[in-house]
Amino acid sequence: MLKKRLIPKLQMKPSKIGSKNRMVLVTTVSFDKVIEIGDPLSQAKIFEAQAADELIFLDLDAHSEDRDLMIDIIKKSAEEIFMPFTVGGGVRTLEDIRILLSNGADKVSINTAAIENPQLINDSSKKFGAQCIVLSIDYKKDEEGCYYVYKNGGKIKTDLCPLNWAIEGENRGAGEILITSIDNDGTQNGLDLFMTKKISEAVKIPVITSGGCGLASHFSEGFTKGKADAVSAGTFFCFKDQNLMQTRSHIKNAGISIRMHT
Fold first, then answer.
1. pTM, whole model, 2 decimals?
2. What is the average pLDDT value for the chain, to the nearest integer?
């Protein structure tokens, strides 16, 4: 059995510092309220010291603002941290994926571009290998309790069902699925275990679930009740006294097979 993974998520937005725009680490609530935290690379080093399994770097507004890829941060991260990391945000083409992988990313997350051109999943998986391609799915419920996928950083509703889109993504060659509940994002009230389980049981590729972790027990529930292969969190690790090693111990004590670092 593959061991479960803990994956901190580093979400970034540009912030004006002096006369220049600089990417800063942020947390969000339901993809809306934004709290600036600090330097993403410094935080990544902390996560590495606390023995995270992987990292996810996301430029939250890159696609909607038509911004260039954050190559500088990726290069520096590849030089200074020594764990696998995924990069997402503003990825539009095969060339974008090639640039990110050649500058140090281990995997590339695609979201809006995959919705607008599903063939990109097929083409990128064939060219770079399924293990490099992560289909990112942001979703939320409407007033009638139906789930829908959103694009452009959660700003635009689509007619896609997250479950069906995950299955299609796997069939097109994605090697991993990253799901994020917009409703639960930043609330610290727990993961969306219902949709996590639905997707985890429907696909054979690994599923990373995120959005809502506020307690160490929420991670355990993501594994036991949600059947996820990995749990990713941003707000939890930035604002809680409990660090990754403590969370990992809690998960192990719950009887879950997770890698323990010494």
1. 0.93
2. 90
